[in-house]
Structure formats: structure tokens, C-alpha cells
Write a structure and sequence with these properties.
The protein is of the alpha+beta class. The protein folds into three domains: 37-333, Immunoglobulin-like, CATH 2.60.40; 341-484, Neutral Protease Domain 2 (Neutral Protease, domain 2, Orthogonal Bundle), CATH 1.10.390; 525-637, Alpha Horseshoe (Serine Threonine Protein Phosphatase 5, Tetratricopeptide repeat). The structure holds ligand BES and zinc ion. Ligand BES binds at residues 172-173, 302-306, 327, 330-331, 334, 353, 410, 413, 418, 594.
Length: 642
């Protein structure tokens, strides 16, 4: 078949069933008859965040040959792109951002004409390459900018070991184009291979199979080779370079991190192998071979990032007591929801995050029991209620499917898609029964493995394979209400934790003055109970009350990042001066956006008490932060009028 009929077909005209089998937009069809990913069953919407026109020509494999120059803070070298073209195609459009393009050739080195379009903010610039008829491969010679949005180049001082520099990438959502010139859209899956040359004393790791774990000595450094045979969206191509060591956790899992952190990280993550087994028992085989983690230096801007075969994680989960490992369950779950079945465009990202947050909780329940899972779900449900309360009433931003804007897909990215998504699936689970729900979800992952997914196609699948025409069930589920309307529908199944009910009783007793903080069972509480306690005390507290909590609960020397975060927000909201040194330490010692951004935001609304403090502290802290974090915080601290 040719691509022509598909070019004419609109997404609406293509019923899901109608494009099953051969030839969705993103399928190989017979274009070139090369080995390429299986055809998509889901018609793809236009991606406003990408310049690519995959219906004319699309990338299906990326081969990188890059050298990391830590002095210049640049990656430089070549990206060879294997492409599929529709008959008559004369050009291919790639995404780039701040790349220095030195030339483009065909596979045999003959120069090809190319042009960089206008810069369009976070979307970067389209790179349009003229291709000869039947072209199968183009090669882009380029280097990255020292300010590449996806890359953070750390000085030795910014690492745990303090002796060697470090580099890591973060691709989601549309940052990969700042280090790889490719079609950077989550619906355009690509396999990849790479050779990364780094200084002799450093090691490179990627979200791929390591072909040369120890590297090979080459002119001016060491070269590491990688290959990922499963096609992935480009936001999952990831690289880290540093003084990195490996410690095994299980037969197919292990942890990479700086040598000084290895023992602590391995001890924290001991249950990883059990999590993989639990996830497989729930929703089918783990299809990526190994599952390793990379624990990054403290400036890593996210809690975790589900890079295939190699989850990237913040060191702030290393609490010493394994209390924050639900993050591992979360990133692991993305190996199904996200990496296997992938949001087609960023407006569908609740399919990645909502399904994953639900799946994460099921893994936690399987490993640690229903009470632990209920506590975590309850904490998250409260987060959801708070997020919705902060939005204007009826705001479309509390719908699951949030309309795509041509601006930054990360802008206004809220926790709603995580927690409301989870609440939605829990509600469906309870309505149809766990057994039936699990069978459907497992089959959904199988049916759509390695494919992009839209909100509409997911709902169609749920109707076809779970609801199966049961009109009463359809009415009770309120699917459209959940997905497209703001707020939380009335059929929501609210997580209930009996342990939390006891915590609330204690919080009330303390606030009423009938129980001193020293008599609270704080020491016997889990991290989740402690978090719930701090959320359950009144918002307005006196200085004496705060001092009592701080002293009796040992909060000034607390080591658990989540508990410290919750405590500091309470302190800031009550302008509790003695906490300022701890706020400083917290904001200077890690750069996780989830912690840093709200802390600065809360300081900035505290007038003369908070603003000058926040401003001067930010000047000191900012050089240690990742672009993802400082771009968000800039808008709050520097953008705000005094
Ligand atoms: N995929 C996300 C991280 C992400 C989201 C990166 C959007 C860029 C844009 C990852 O799986 C995630 O959700 N991480 C959370 C932790 C999780 C336990 C909720 C985080 O980083 O806080
Ligand atoms: Zn996630």
C-alpha cells in the first residue's frame, strides 16, 4: 500500500478498528520495505510540539557518534538517522533546539541541502533536509550548545565525590531535540544505538543495552557503545557520564551511582527485583531485559525519570529506611504505561502518568500490603484535592485530558494527571471488580505494546474490551465526566487508611493542647504517617507550637526529604524564623523541582519576611540547579514584581 490514502484520511475518519493491522500513519507499510516498527493501530493527532511531518518522511533509527567535551560543555559528532519515506517525498523535517549544525550528508557522505527555520521558543527550530528519491539514511554533523536545555554539565564540586565532572540528560517532554537532531514527538518511535566518547576516567551509561560495559580505549578518551532494539519515543533517549560505579541488586537489576553513594543506594533499593516480579504478575512480562537505576547527583530536577532499562532517580529518595521507594515502583511501572504504551501527544500525558500512578500503588500493595498502599493513595488524594482547590472553580486544568497548547507542554503541568488519573482507574477497578479490571489492563498493554495511544483510543479500548456494551456499567462509570470534565466525579472511590484516622486523632489532641508533642507516637510512625500528621495539624500555628514540634519531633535534624519538605512549608507559612538555616540547607543541598519550586513560591508570598530571604538565597542556589528547575523558579523569584 502507499501512504496516499492515509494522508487523506482524517483521524476522525479512521476508526480504531479500521486501522488495525497494516498501515497507520506511523507504520512502515511498504515504504522502503525496511525493517521498522509495527504499524500503529491508533490514528495520530497532530503534535503541536513538533515540526516533524512523519506522514512524508519519518525517522525510525538513530545512531549517535558523540564526544563529550567537559571544558567546552558540548557534545559533538554525528547523528545518522535511518528514515522511511512516502513515495515522492523530497524532504524530511527534524526538530532541533540550540544545535550548531555543521552539515548534513547522505549515507555515503554526499552533502545534502538543508535549512533551519525560525526559532519558535521551546519548540526550537525545524531542520528541513532535502532528500534524494529513495533515501534511507541521512547524517547530521553537529554540536550542542553549552546551554542545551536537556543537558546539565556539573562541575566536580556539584558531585558527591567532588573530584570529577558529571553530565546527564533529561529528555521529557521536548528537550531531546537540544542534544539529538531527530523527530522529537512521542508518537514517532525510534530504536537507537550510540558510541559515546568521554574522558578516560569517566564512564558513560545510557537507557539502552551496554555493548562495552568497560568502554574501549580510543584516541583522547574512552568510547562506550550502546544499543536499544525496542523502538521508543525520543524523550526516552538518555545519557549520563561521570564517576559511576555499579552494584548488583538482583539477576536483572542493579544500581549505578557515584562510588561514595553506592552502598547506601544499594541498601535502599534492595526490593527492586521483587518489584519487577510483582509488576509482571500484575500486568504481564517486563519487555526491556534489564531494569537498572542510576542515582544521580542532587541537582537532578525530578524525583525519577523512566528512561528505558535505566531509571534515573534523585538521591533524595535515599532516606536510609526504604520509605520512599514508591518512586521506584512508579518509574518501573512506566515500563508498561508510558514506555510500552505511550501518550501519542503531550495532551494525552495522563495516560502515562495516571496509569503509572495507579500501577505504582498496586506494586506497593503487592509488596508491602494494603495499609501501606492505602496510606500512599490517601496522601496523593489529598494532594489532588489541594491542587483542584488552588485552581479557579471549574478550571479545565483539572480535566484529565488537557488541551494541547502550542507553548510549553510542561507549563502548568500539575499533579492532577497523576492523582486524578489514579483515582479514575481505582474507581473503574472497584466498579467492575479487581479481577476483571486487571485482566483488561493487562490485555490493553499487550494489544498496544510499542504503540502510541490517544485518550480517545484508550476509551474506545475500554468500551470494547471492558464495558462491552453494558449500558448500566457505562452509566455508572462516568468515563467522559472523568476524562474531559474538571473536578472529581461523584462516583470516586476515596482511599481510606485506618492508620491515618489514628494520626488525625493525635493531631487534633495535640492542637487542642490535650497532648504534648513529646507524647506523640512519632517515633513509631512510618514516613507516610508522619507526613499525614504534618498535613493534619492546623495551618496556623504559634511560634511556641512550632518550636514544640521542632524540638519534640527532632525536625531540625530530620533526614527524610519528604518530611523535611512538609515541615519547612509549615514553618514558612507561619513565618517561623528559626527554620531559616534549615531552609537554606535544604535549598542548597538538592535541586529537585518538586521541593525547590513550592518552597520558593511559599517564601515569595510571605512579604518582607520571605521575599528578600528568597531572593538572596536563590542567587546562591541557582548555579547548582538544572535548567528545568531554574527556569521554573526564575519565573517565581526573578519574574515577580517586588
Ligand atoms: N515521567 C515523570 C517525570 C517527568 C514528567 C519529566 C514530566 C518531565 C516531564 C516521572 O515518571 C515522574 O512522574 N516522576 C515523579 C516521581 C513520581 C514518583 C511521581 C517526580 O519526578 O516527582
Ligand atoms: Zn511518572
Amino acid at each position: 500500500m502507499s501512504l496516499r490514502p492515509l494522508l487523506l484520511a482524517t483521524a476522525a475518519a479512521l476508526a480504531v478498528a479500521g486501522c488495525a493491522g497494516k498501515g497507520g500513519f506511523y507504520g512502515a507499510g511498504e515504504i522502503g520495505a525496511q525493517a521498522a516498527p509495527a504499524p500503529s493501530m491508533v490514528p495520530l493527532p497532530r503534535d503541536v510540539h513538533s515540526f516533524a511531518r512523519p506522514e512524508i518522511a519519518r525517522v525510525h533509527h538513530v545512531d549517535l557518534d558523540l564526544r563529550a567535551d567537559f571544558d567546552a560543555r558540548r557534545l559533538s559528532g554525528k547523528a545518522a538517522l535511518d528514515i522511511l519515506t512516502a513515495p515522492g517525498a523530497t524532504e524530511i523535517v527534524l526538530d532541533t533546539r540550540d544545535l550548531d549544525i555543521r552539515g548534513v550528508t547522505d549515507a555515503s557522505g554526499r552533502p545534502l541541502q538543508y535549512a533551519l527555520g525560525e526559532a519558535a521558543g521551546v519548540r526550537g527550530r525545524p531542520l528541513t533536509v532535502q532528500i534524494p528519491a529513495g533515501a534511507r539514511r541521512i547524517v547530521v554533523d553537529y554540536q550542542t550548545s553549552p546551554d542545551a536545555a536537556a543537558l546539565q554539565w556539573l562541575t566536580p564540586a556539584q558531585t558527591a565525590g567532588k573530584r570529577r565532572p558529571y553530565l546527564f540528560s533529561q529528555g521529557q517532554a521536548i528537550l531531546t531535540r537540544s542534544w539529538v537532531p531527530t523527530q522529537d514527538s512521542p508518537g514517532i518511535r525510534q530504536t537507537y544505538s550510540a558510541r559515546i566518547t568521554v574522558p578516560e576516567d569517566l564512564r558513560a551509561v545510557m537507557s539502552a543495552e551496554q555493548l562495552t560495559p568497560n568502554g574501549q580505549r580510543v584516541q583522547g578518551g574512552r568510547a562506550y557503545r550502546f544499543r536499544l532494539d525496542q523502538p521508543v519515543p525520543p524523550y526516552l533517549i538518555a545519557l549520563a557520564v561521570g564517576d559511576i560505579e555499579f552494584g548488583p541488586l538482583g539477576p536483572r537489576s542493579g544500581v549505578y551511582t557515584e562510588p561514595s553513594m553506592l552502598d547506601a543506594a544499594a541498601a535502599e533499593l534492595v526490593d527492586t527485583e521483587k518489584m519487577i516480579a510483582a509488576a509482571e504478575a500484575l500486568y504481564g512480562p517486563y519487555r526491556w531485559g534489564r531494569y537498572d537505576l542510576l542515582v544521580l547527583p542532587p541537582s537532578f530536577p525530578y524525583g525519577g525519570m523512566e528512561n528505558p532499562r535505566l531509571t534515573f532517580a534523585t538521591p533524595t529518595i535515599i532516606a536510609g529506611d526504604r520509605s520512599l521507594t514508591s518512586l521506584v515502583a512508579h518509574e518501573l511501572a512506566h515500563s508498561w504505561s508510558g514506555n510500552l504504551v505511550t501518550n501519542a501527544i503531550w495532551a494525552d500525558s495522563w495516560l502515562n502518568e495516571g496509569f503509572t500512578t495507579y500501577f505504582e500503588n498496586r506494586i506497593m500493595e503487592a509488596l508491602y500490603g494494603p495499609e501501606r498502599a492505602a496510606m500512599e493513595a490517601a496522601l496523593e488524594y489529598r494532594t489532588l484535592q489541594n491542587s483542584i482547590a488552588e485552581l479557579p472553580k471549574g478550571s479545565p486544568r483539572s480535566a484529565l485530558k488537557v488541551e494541547a497548547s502550542a507553548t510549553d507542554p510542561e507549563e502548568g503541568g500539575s499533579t492532577v494527571i497523576y492523582e486524578k488519573g489514579q483515582a479514575f482507574l481505582r474507581t473503574v477497578e472497584h466498579t467492575v471488580g479487581r479481577e476483571r479490571f486487571d485482566a483488561w489492563l493487562r490485555s490493553y498493554f499487550d494489544r498496544h505494546a510499542f504503540q502510541p495511544m490517544t485518550t480517545e483510543a484508550m476509551l474506545a479500548d475500554m468500551r470494547a474490551n471492558l464495558i462491552r456494551g453494558d449500558a448500566d456499567l457505562e452509566r455508572r462509570l462516568q468515563l467522559n465526566q472523568w476524562v474531559y470534565q474538571p473536578g472529581v466525579p461523584g462516583n470516586v472511590v476515596v482511599p481510606k487508611s485506618t492508620a491515618f484516622a489514628r494520626v488525625e486523632t493525635e493531631a487534633k489532641a495535640w492542637a487542642a493542647g490535650s497532648r504534648p508533642a513529646s507524647a506523640l507516637p512519632w517515633r513509631s510512625w512510618t514516613t507516610q504517617e508522619r507526613q499525614h500528621f504534618l498535613a493534619s495539624v492546623p495551618e496556623k500555628l504559634t511560634r511556641a507550637q512550632l518550636a514544640e514540634l521542632e524540638r519534640s519531633l527532632g525536625l531540625a535534624s530530620e533526614g527524610n526529604s519528604e518530611v523535611v519538605f512538609d515541615w519547612l512549608q509549615l514553618a514558612i507559612k507561619n513565618r517561623y524564623d528559626p527554620a531559616k538555616p534549615q531552609i537554606e540547607r535544604f535549598l542548597l543541598s538538592q535541586g529537585r523541582r518538586k521541593f525547590v519550586l513550592p518552597t520558593f513560591r511559599n517564601l515569595m508570598v510571605q512579604g518582607e519576611w520571605g521575599r528578600p530571604f528568597a531572593r538572596s538565597l536563590y542567587e546562591r542556589a541557582r548555579p547548582g540547579y538544572h535548567p528545568v528547575t531554574y527556569t521554573s523558579v526564575d519565573a517565581v523569584v526573578r519574574g515577580a514584581a517586588s
